[in-house]
Specification:
The chain is mainly α. 77% of the residues lie in helices and 0% in strands. The longest helix has 29 residues, at 3-31.
Amino acid sequence: MGMFEYIVVLTGVVIGLALTHLMQGVARLIERPGHVRIWWVHLGWVAYMFVNAVFWWWWEFRLRLITAWSFQIYAFVLGYAFQIYLICAVLFPSDIAPFEGFKDYFMARRRWFFGMLIAWLATDLFDTWAKGAAYFASLGPEYPIAQAGFALICVVGLLSSRERVQAAVLLLTVGYQLSRIVRFYDVVR
């Protein structure tokens, strides 16, 4: 087994746990309908993070191109996966009982959620920059502009407790992400 395979197995476990956490949360909602109030904005973030975790796994397959692995690169990639797990984990608590529903829970934890998203954006920016100037430039001006825009949107989500603002933050984020998926991954031919 090469270094890439060794590392990708461990990061795969972490991403698998993140996806499992999300799927178990949704399964609990299906198992016990009416047990807890759901909120469409919360479910939108669940779907967003599911897609992002899957795409991160797909994108990180490019790590096979690294020929000189170091502990620092290994720790960085593992930390990157761990961030995704934590963002997914904050979406479904182990006990929702102290809250009236997922709207109350999400609003109470929004600073953690959006703070972790901002940290994840910074990690992605660093990861992209570390791959070299040519790689960074190959993504075009849209990449840094989109990252900065998403960080600003996350700050708005972090600061605002208004339901309409939270809905707008989700819709802007998901709308842009869908446009990227369609444009960059040849979803529609």
